[in-house]
Every structure is written in structure tokens, then in C-alpha cells.
Write a structure and sequence with these properties.
With about 425 residues, the protein is mostly beta strands. Helix content is about 10%, strand content about 50%. It is globular, with a radius of gyration of 22 Å.
């Protein structure tokens, strides 16, 4: 493993050394034409809902700087600076407060910085177990009884002293910073770090709705990381990117690879590696209609805590899976979690209207999607023991509103064999 780490850092140094002058792809002509000049604010109250977290409220305020129309990079970048602050909480005890910066050509260099300071808290985080069993055995209670649907499971078991059987609580302050640089106009390297502290607790012995809760699945399975810890990670990666407009692509592809590692010498209490490979493709046969496809694979080795397993660590955006509004949109968040996970997504987007009150611009799109994924205990099982019958599938649709092109809000409804899920949130799922 030390050899892998040394080779990986050597590879990163080579990329840094060979990085060339920034030469991003040209944005589509109609996007440049509609793009606002200079700086501006967008913001809106957050009145959100997801099946996992319930009704939420708060606010998010964006600051954008696009620079002048005759600026060197006006036609090459979606924006020069995007900065937003968010306060958000839900009735089911989920809090996500954040300050987030995305800065192209940082301080006049040819580098891009993405960074965020986050306070993440949840009284009802999902834990349905870890491993290939999560996709092969379905919903099970503490005695091993199986249920076909979430409703059957809730009616027969998730009540009284077992109401919180699949839940746990955490508080996670964290900070990350990722730097991106171009090797050519299509190849980009990324290097970054993340600092996070997990404070976890079980619902066992706590009261809910008048009932003292029995041991939960977290107590029964006792996964690695149950007690929480400080974990710091380094990551590096590379991407082949030909997308025409990153926040809302209509053409091009992105193929990427990233390596994350947590080490004791970084101050972490865990020692692990994670490899993630992703591919996205966008195709617009005629202007209002866009097809989006994504494939993803992630695999971790050594002692990764269960609460870190549930991520696809793509270079441009870490996304939770499998389940929730970014991966399998017809299942609860983190419904299927394992050391190795695969997923595939297909989405059709149709732009049917634009509205331009004053200097603002809103574009409206209907979307339809199909998602699939599986969980494995071995990094090579997706090839040698694929278990196609255990792949989990869901589909659905919704609406996406693009505000001044770069701020997107989605409304999704997804359905699977187990349950349905609703999400009102920011950005496309396939990003």
C-alpha cells in the first residue's frame, strides 16, 4: 500500500509539472449570448422536501462574478466566481449550513479552487447495513425476516421500540479544498484535502414518541467506525472533459478517476484507500432535447468507516450512494452501501419554456430518469461475479428550473419496488 501511495503522489507531481496554460473549451454561442455580464446576486428562501429528511426551510444566497463580455475567459467559463452561503434545517432534524466557493483562475493563476466550510448534522441518518447483502437480501428486521416493500416493513416492524432501528445520529463539521489545473484544453488534474470530525450516537436507550428504543441495526451490526472519529483525507485525480457548459451540459463527455486516502500521519484514526471511476455523456439531437448518461464505480480497501463508504468520490462532486436524490432516486438515502459499488443513470431533459422578467432569465425543463446500481464486497466482483439479479432499479421524472443558467433547482419524484421518494433540491443529479 505504501508503494501505491508513493506512486500516486509521484503521478500527481508529474501532472503538476506538466500542467499547461489554461485553455478551456468554448461555451456554446447561445449560452454566451444569454450570459450576464459583471457581478450579480441570486438567492431564494429554501422550502425543500425530501422523503428522507421531511420538510426543510432556510435560505441560500449566491454571488456570481462573470466579468466583462470582452474578458479573456467570458466565453470559456460558466462564471469566474461563484460564492454562496446557506442556512438549512428540516423538521426531521437534518441541518446543513455551508459557505461554498468556486473560483476559476484563482488570484490570476491558471488554477481553479473549489472549497467549502460545512456544519452537517442529522438526528435520523439512515443505516441499512453494509455489504453485498444490502442488495441481495432486501429489507430485513433484527430477526432476519424479509419484507418486499418499505410500507410492509414499517407496518410490521418499524414502530414502538423499533421505530429508530435503521437510524443513528451524527454531528459532522468539515472543510475541504480542491485545486484543479489543466494539462491540455481537455485534460485536468485535481488535488485536494478534506478535514472532518464525526460525532456519532445510537438511538438505543433514547426515547422516541414515548418509547425507549431497543438496540438498532447500528448496535446489532457494530460496523467499523461506529464510535466516530477524526478523519483527514488527501485526494488526487484526473479528468478528460469536453463538456460544453458544466452546470447544465448539453453536449460532450467527462471521464474521470480519483484516488482518496486517509492516513494516520494526516491525523486520521482510519487508514484506507478509495478508487473511483466515472463517465458522463451528454447528447442533444435537437436543441430542446438532451440525453444524459452516467456510469460510476467506486471501491475502498482497508479500514474505511461505514459512514465514508457511502460516497462516489468523483473529482468534481462527491455524491452519496446508493439511494437518495443523486444516485438511485427511488430509494432512501444510503439504502445500499458497500466497499464496492456500481451505478448507471439515464436521463432525458426537455426544455419547454423560458421566462425573462427584467434582467433575470429562467429556463424550464421536464426530466425523466432511470437509475440502477449494485453493492459488492470485492473490487473485482462487478466483473467476475456481477450478480445481475441483485441490481436495484428505479425510475421517475420531474422538473428542473435554471435561473440565470448557473443556478439550478430540481423537483424529482422517483419510484422503486420498495418505495417512492421525493426531492426538491439544487443542481442536476447527473453532474
Amino acid at each position: 500500500m505504501r508503494k501505491i501511495l508513493k506512486l500516486s503522489f509521484a503521478f500527481l507531481l508529474c501532472l503538476l509539472y506538466t500542467a499547461s496554460v489554461f485553455a478551456a473549451q468554448q461555451l456554446p454561442a447561445d449560452v454566451v449570448e444569454k450570459k450576464k455580464e459583471g457581478w450579480y446576486f441570486t438567492g431564494l428562501p429554501l422550502v425543500n422536501y425530501t422523503t428522507d429528511d421531511g420538510f426543510g426551510f432556510g435560505a441560500r444566497v449566491y454571488f456570481y462574478d462573470n466579468g466583462p463580455k470582452d474578458g479573456e475567459n467570458f466565453a470559456n467559463e460558466p462564471y469566474s466566481i461563484q460564492l454562496y452561503g446557506q442556512f438549512y434545517m428540516t423538521l426531521l432534524g437534518y441541518h446543513y449550513h455551508e459557505i461554498n466557493l468556486d473560483y476559476y483562475n484563482m488570484f490570476g493563476t491558471n488554477l481553479r479552487l473549489k472549497s467549502a466550510l460545512v456544519l452537517d448534522m442529522n438526528k435520523n441518518a439512515n443505516f441499512y447495513g453494509v455489504g453485498a447483502k444490502t442488495t441481495s437480501q432486501g429489507l430485513t428486521d433484527n430477526l432476519g425476516n424479509s419484507y418486499d416493500t418499505m410500507k410492509d416493513y414499517e407496518d410490521a416492524f418499524l414502530n414502538g421500540t423499533h421505530s429508530k432501528y435503521d437510524k443513528y445520529q451524527y454531528i459532522k463539521p468539515n472543510y475541504f479544498a480542491d485545486v484543479y489545473g489543466d494539462i491540455t484544453d481537455q485534460f485536468t488534474w485535481v488535488a485536494g484535502f478534506r478535514i472532518a470530525y464525526w460525532d456519532l450516537s445510537s438511538w438505543e436507550g433514547k426515547k422516541y414518541d414515548g418509547d425507549v428504543q431497543d438496540p438498532t441495526r447500528l448496535d446489532d451490526e457494530n460496523p467499523y467506525g461506529k464510535d466516530g472519529a477524526l478523519y483527514n483525507t488527501l485526494r488526487m485525480g484526473i479528468a478528460w472533459n469536453t463538456l460544453d457548459y458544466e452546470p447544465d451540459p448539453r453536449a460532450g463527455f467527462n471521464i474521470d478517476y480519483s484516488l482518496e486516502t486517509s492516513q494516520k500521519w494526516l491525523g486520521s484514526e482510519s487508514y484506507y484507500f478509495r478508487n473511483t471511476i466515472g463517465a458522463r455523456y451528454y447528447f442533444t439531437p435537437w436543441k430542446p432535447l438532451t440525453f444524459a448518461v452516467r456510469l460510476g464505480y467506486t471501491s475502498s480497501q482497508l479500514d474505511m468507516p461505514f459512514y465514508e463508504m457511502n460516497y462516489f468520490a468523483f473529482p468534481y462532486a462527491r455524491q452519496q450512494g446508493l439511494g437518495g436524490n443523486r444516485t438511485l432516486r427511488g430509494f432512501p438515502s444510503n439504502r445500499f452501501v458497500a466497499k464496492t459499488m456500481t451505478m448507471g443513470n439515464l436521463e432525458v431533459r426537455y426544455s419547454f419554456a423560458e421566462w425573462t422578467p427584467g434582467s433575470e432569465r429562467f429556463e424550464f425543463k421536464v426530466v425523466a430518469f432511470y437509475d440502477s446500481g449494485n453493492a459488492y464486497d470485492d473490487p473485482f466482483h462487478p466483473i467476475y461475479k456481477p450478480r445481475f439479479g441483485d441490481y436495484q432499479h428505479c425510475g421517475g421524472g420531474g422538473l428542473v428550473i435554471a435561473w440565470n443558467q448557473a443556478t439550478l433547482v430540481h423537483f424529482y419524484f422517483g419510484a422503486s419496488k420498495e418505495t417512492t421518494a421525493i426531492s426538491v433540491d439544487f443542481m442536476h443529479a447527473i453532474q
